Each structure stands twice: as C-alpha cells, then as structure tokens.
Amino acid sequence: MARPRTPKAKAEITGHADKQKTKFKGRNEPIVDETLGDAPHWIKDTDTNKAHEAWETLRLEIPWLNSSHRILVATASNILGRMIAGQECGVQAMNLLRQCLGQMGATPADASKAGAKPDGEKTDPADEFFD
Where do Basic and acidic residues bias regions lie (predicted)? Predict the structure, then answer.
C-alpha cells in the first residue's frame, strides 16, 4: 500500500516543500483560507470529557489544519477529551484516534516522512556546504 501524500500546507510548515520544490510546485490542492478556528458550540468540557480542551490542544499542536478538517478534529477531540478527563478508552477508540491523527499528518511517522526536525529545530540551508 502506498503511503499517503504529504499535504502541501504541512510540507511548507515543516520545510519539506523547500527541499523538494518540484514535487510540490505543480501540486494542485484545494485552497482553504479559513483556519481551523474555535471549537463548535456543541464541543464542551464536562467532568467525563474535556473535548474543548482537546480541540485547543490539537489546534495549537497541528498548525496546518484548516476549516476543512473540522469534522476530523471533532472526532479526535472527543476521544482525546475522554483521555484528558481520565476516562477509560477502549482499543477501538484509541485506534480511531491514531487513524485521525495519521490522516491529519500529526503522528511522529508522518512528521519524519515530511522531514520535520525534532522540537521544531531549524536548519540553515548553508549547512550542507560547511559540514
């Protein structure tokens, strides 16, 4: 099975688009100007589910998400919110969360495919000539 394509927005943030300009130059992806934004009104924090807190966590930690990802983020927020609240999450819920994160390009394996540096470490393009 082929690995999923890296979204152009993610590649630009991680610097992968600069390394392989020809790969991303001709890529036509839908342009979505709206950011992910605030959580929908129906996502609320309760004693058993901190879904709103989870939404904010995902919004901050995955900066390339936009408004077209809102349903996927809502699904992930619901499961992650249960984890934050200390609730028991079954294997199926954890697997669904893993799948959602993978589809959003938010797993360590996805970050390594895009060439992201740990902890946002930046590289100088001139380093290749001086090493």
Answer: 9-30, 116-125
